[in-house]
Amino acid sequence: MIVEFRSNKLRKCFEIHKEAQKAWGNAIARRYLERINVLMAVNEIEDLKKFPQFRFHALTGDRKGQYALNLDGFYRLIFTLSDETVQIITIEEVSKHYGN
Questions:
Q1: Cα dihedral 47→78→35→70 (10° resolution)
Q2: Can you tell me the distance from the alpha carbon of 17 to that of 46, in angstroms, rounded to the nearest whole number?
Q3: Taking the domains of the chain in order of start, what are their residue ranges?
Q4: For residue 99, what pLDDT is reported?
Q5: pLDDT digit string, tens, across residues 66-96
């Protein structure tokens, strides 16, 4: 799959580990890189269900059409899929899901 990024910051955080560390700390930065590498490697989006620790799920409400992978207890990686063929994934954001 091809991975695109919604912002230059997200791209830089993927390409330069120190940028990700500055943004989220070492543990989240490491998981961010890991999750994106997995997204690049899977053949089908359903393959993500093979990794229970990712807690892959579709979002609802205002975020309908987006998906999330767990980074840790609070942070998640949010992405969208290009279309039915799921050849392009766009990294939308890293969000702190449960408040401050």
A1: -90
A2: 28
A3: 2-96
A4: 53
A5: 999 999 888 999 999 886 666 889 999 999 8
